[in-house]
Every structure is written in C-alpha cells, then in structure tokens.
Amino acid sequence: MDKDAISNPIPYGRQSISEEDVWEVTNVLQFSWLTQGPKVQEFEKVIASYCGAKYAVVVSSGTAALHLACAVAGLTSGKEAVTSPLSFLATSNAILYCGAKPIFADINPESGNLSPEEVQKKLTVRTRVLLPVHFAGLPCDLLRFRSIARKAKLVIIEDACHALGAEYRGSKVGSCRYSDMSVFSFHPVKHVTTGEGGAITTNNRNFYRKLLLLRNHGMLRSPALSKRLGGWVYQMTALGFNYRITDIQCALGISQMRKLDAFLEKRKEIARKYTDALSEYKDLLILPDTSDADRTHAWHLFALRLKEPFAPKRRLIYDRLHQEGIRVQIHYIPIHLQPFYRRLLGTRPGNFPFAESFYTSELSLPIFPGLTSAMQGRVLSALTRELNLFRGRRRTPFTHETVDIAG
Ligand SMILES: *Cc1c(COP(=O)(O)O)cnc(C)c1O
Fold it and tell me: What is the 62 CA–ligand 1 centroid distance (Å)?
C-alpha cells in the first residue's frame, strides 16, 4: 500500500482549527472563567444572530440539545414524536429520554429527508412533536411540515445538525421562521466545532427560559429571591440536568463562527467538483443539489447512491477505499433496524423501504474545509477506478436487499 495512504488517511469529515482558534482557547484558560462565564452568552449571541433567531441556548452536545428541546416541547410518557429513521441515533434517542415514543415515517428517496406525506399517515392523538432532519444539509420541506403542525397542534423541532448555514426561503436554517426550535451540533465533523457541543435556537421566550432552566439542574436564582431570602438561595423548580458547555469550548465556537461562511464556501466548491467529475457515471445517483431560490445546501455530507449493479459491490468499494486510507462513510443504518429499537418498537426490515434502500446504496465521500484538491483527486481517482471495474459487466437485476444488522 502507498505510504501516503497510511500516513494521511482522509476522513469523511474533520475540523479545521486555526492559530486564532488556539489563541482564543488559551486566552480563556489563562485569563477567564472556565465555565459559566461570559463566553457562554457571547457564543449564544453569535449563534442567534447568525441564524436570525431571537434566542440561542448552548449546551454540552447536540444530543443534549435534542433532549432539552424534546423536554420543553412537552414530550412525556404517553406522547409521540414523528421522526426520520434515516438519521443518527441521537435524534430518536432524545425522544426516548423523555419517556415518549418515537414514531418513524419514511423518507423521500430523492433527498433523504422525512416525507410530509408519510408523516401525515403517522399522526395520532398522542403526537406532540415533529422532528425532521435536514439530511446532509439540504433543508427539508418546512412549509409542509408547518401546515401539518398547525392543523394538529404540534411542536416542530428541526434536527439541523447537518444544516448550519443552509437557507430556506431566504432565511437561515435555525431562524425558526417555520418551526419552534432548531438543534445544532458542534462535534468535530460538523460545520463548526467546540469539541463536543450543541445549541438550540428559538423565538419562543417560554421555551427559551425552560431550556436555560433544564440545562442547569432546574435551578432558579433571581435578584428578588436573593433579596427576600438571602444571596445564596436558589430554588429547584424542575428536574434538570448538567448539560452546561464550558467557556473554553465557547471561545473556540465563537472563533469558529467567524470562519463559517468561508467553510461553507469551501464545502460548496468541493461538492461542485465531485458533481462535475462524477456526472458521467450514469450508474451513480448524486443527491440533488436542489439549491435554488427556495433553499441552499450546507453540504455537511456529499452523499452518493450507487445504482445497480454497484449496490451489492458497495461493501467491496468501501473496504478497498478504506485500505487506501480513504475513509468514505455510510449514512445511516436506519434506526428502526437497531436491535434496541426492534425490541422496543417491534420494527423490522421492510417497514421503511425508502430509508432501507437509501441505506443499502449510500456512500458519503470526504467533504470538509481542509480537503485539498490533491486529496480530492485521490478520492476521485480511487472511486472512479472502482466504478470502472464494474462497468460493462452484466447487470444483475437489482433486488431489494434485506437489511438486517441485528445478526
Ligand atoms: C451529529 C448529530 C447529532 C448529535 O450531535 P452530538 O453533538 O454528536 O451529540 C444529532 N443528529 C444528527 C442528525 C447529527 O448529525
């Protein structure tokens, strides 16, 4: 194997950290609060203002953000939330943390986003929340979800972990113009990072106050309370958590946000290059860049689908690219097929055919701001070599593969 491949593996996503980022973090370490200090609110202001939302609450992870959003939306035992099976585990786990039941609805196979028609079929009197995911960074059909939510009196929480910087009908995702809350993650593979971290944006003051309360054990302090009962007095009014994020992390986040637009531009350029280089491969489906006046893509993932006869060969392509240090990824194993979910909900292969065939044919190529054109060249030449190997072979009819990861 090529030396370069071993010493420089190319991940599907990774952080870009600059000297300024390092300086901001060390500055906090030397001169400021490490946690519960001013960087937390400063980071919140930056996020809220970037997204065009009234409020932002930053927390220790995207998962914590999802959990708190579900909690303040009123999910409790006996309630249901409709969401996508084509997501990371955290999306539906957050519903379970509240004691509520995740109800999956199938996706639109073109975009990977939750289908409004399928959501409509899953509504019951117990439904309280719609939790769509902007898959890969392409905004989902928020207008349709809003009209469903209005009729059924539901709270919309956007899982926007892939979509920081994307736009929908002229507003940034996270503006909550068409939803109640939006959730972001600052894990290193996401658009900006704090190591671990997350945020919720909202325009709803009531949600905002509850989010702040639950982030910190449900503890309430106020000048009125202090005056009446003593400066040390706090009241616990709800069962909260320690989902705080540190000032060290927020300093990194603030510094990263200054570069977000440049990061997005770089992701767009990489996506354009992949699209141009791969468009002659008729056996590939490139997820549409449906960027237009209505929405722009944030390109968290560059997702391909391998059409027949490649789908059965995906395992081989995956293994061979990984051997060369090209760490393509698969997004996602449908959540309803996880052993835990099958036991809990009785779900099984065949329940969500679009999500399942999406999974069996998907391949995510490396995309992140630090991906150089030499690196992208390596990815493209290895991938096209593999695709060419299968070209011209007799096609095996595409049969719907049964996906079973339960073993
Ligand atoms: C990353 C991600 C999460 C979870 O975020 P963490 O910060 O890792 O907890 C949730 N949903 C989606 C769609 C994600 O991509």
Answer: 5
Q: For helices 62-72 and 89-97, what crossing angle results, to 10°?
A: 40
pLDDT digits (tens, 9 = 90+) for 268-299: 999 999 999 999 888 888 877 666 779 999 99
Distance CA 79, CA 90 (A): 18
Q: How much distance in Å is there from the Cα of 193 to the middle of ligand 1?
A: 12
Q: Which residues of the chain have pLDDT under 50?
A: 396-400, 407
Q: In angstroms, rounded to a whole number, what is the distance separating the alpha carbons of residues 316 and 144?
A: 39
Q: Ligand 1 pocket: which of 185, 193, 241, 300 to mutate (most atoms <8 Å of CB)? A: 185
Residues in Cβ contact with 276 at an 8 Å cutoff, skipping those fewer than 6 apart: none
pLDDT score recorded for residue 207:
98
Percent of the chain with pLDDT over 90: 87
Question: How far is residue 337 from each of residues 63, 67, 268, measured CA to CA in Å?
Answer: 20, 22, 32
Lining residues, ligand 1, CB within 6 Å: 61-63, 87-88, 90-91, 133, 159, 161-162, 185, 187, 198
Specify the pLDDT at position 148: 98
Which residue's entry shows tokens 């708190």?
68
Determine the residue of 15, 86, 173, 187 to mutate for testing ligand 1's pocket, defined as the one with the most ligand atoms within 8 A of the Cβ atom: 187
Per DSSP bridges, beta strands 167-168 and 295-296 are antiparallel
Residues 199, 59: contact at Cβ < 8 Å?
A: yes
Cα 32 to Cα 24, 206, 386, 393, distances in angstroms: 11, 31, 53, 64
Q: Which DSSP string corresponds to 383-397?
A: HHHHHHHHTTSPPPP
Under 8 Å CB-to-CB from 198, ≥6 apart: which residues?
A: 58, 59, 60, 61, 62, 63, 64, 65, 66, 161, 183, 184, 185, 186, 245
Distance CA 401, CA 407 (A): 15
Q: Are 129 and 307 in contact (CB under 8 A)?
A: no
Question: How much is the pLDDT for 166?
Answer: 97
